[in-house]
Write a structure and sequence with these properties.
223 residues; alpha/beta; Rossmann fold; 7-stranded mixed sheet; 5 helices; globular; PLipase/COase/thioEstase; LYPA1-2/EST-like
């Protein structure tokens, strides 16, 4: 059995002092392949101030000469094994349990690989995560034990992607298009001309989505 992945707690970028997290709503940022914890951290300027933000570092180093870090392999046979996405998601859940247990709620915002891991983490622990933002990502094929619980809870998920994104294979986009509406409260948009990236229009939509999540959690503490 493969050894469990462990996230580097010292590499996490926090928007607030860790000691000030208690009772705050926490938003985790999960970067894409070849990036690191610094990549999405500047997005906090577009996000509601009420969130404490923690930008995580993926646990793996891509094969040379690729820069940065990765959540799971994308090349060869390993790149087609969904268990690697699950291992990465389990590492995120373990980090949350160890370092964010006192947060009022925990949401996920991931890009590409980070989005796939975010959705996988929500599938593994539907009760642990309040919502997810999926930017240019996808749902990993295959069944998980708590998918039925996820479908019953129907947590909010925002999915944004571009019409010119040629990185995510079409069959994964199609799978995600069919899978998400049956199991989550889905919102989002397809952005004309957008490549495998994030636009300001998309960030405006993400801000609206996150403001709504804060409003609902303020009205119903503990959600």
């Amino acid at each position: 059995m493969p050894e469990a992945l462990v996230l580097d707690a010292d590499a996490v970028l926090w928007s607030t002092e860790r000691s000030a997290l208690a009772g705050r709503h926490l938003l985790l940022l999960l970067h894409g392949y070849g990036a690191d914890e610094h990549d999405l951290y500047p997005l906090r300027g577009y996000l509601p101030d009420a969130f404490a933000v923690a930008s995580l570092a993926a646990p793996l180093v891509p094969p040379w000469p690729a820069p940065g870090r990765s959540w799971y392999p994308i090349d060869g046979l390993d790149g087609r094994d969904p268990s690697h996405v699950t291992r990465a998601a389990e590492a995120v859940i373990a980090w949350v349990d160890a370092h964010a247990g006192d947060a009022a709620s925990v949401g996920l915002l991931g890009f590409s690989q980070g989005a796939a891991v975010s959705l996988q983490a929500m599938r593994l622990a539907p009760q642990r995560f309040s919502f997810a933002v999926n930017l240019s990502g996808y749902v990993t094929p295959g069944d998980l034990p708590k998918d039925a619980e996820l479908a019953e809870r129907r947590p909010p998920v925002f999915w944004g992607r571009g019409t010119n994104d040629d990185v995510i294979p079409g069959f994964l986009v199609e799978h995600t298009t069919q899978w998400l509406p049956e199991r989550v409260d889905l919102s989002g948009r397809v952005y004309p001309g957008l490549t495998h990236s994030v636009s300001e229009q998309e960030l405006d939509d993400v801000r609206i989505f996150l403001d709504k999540q804060l409003e609902e959690r303020t009205d119903a503490p503990g959600r």
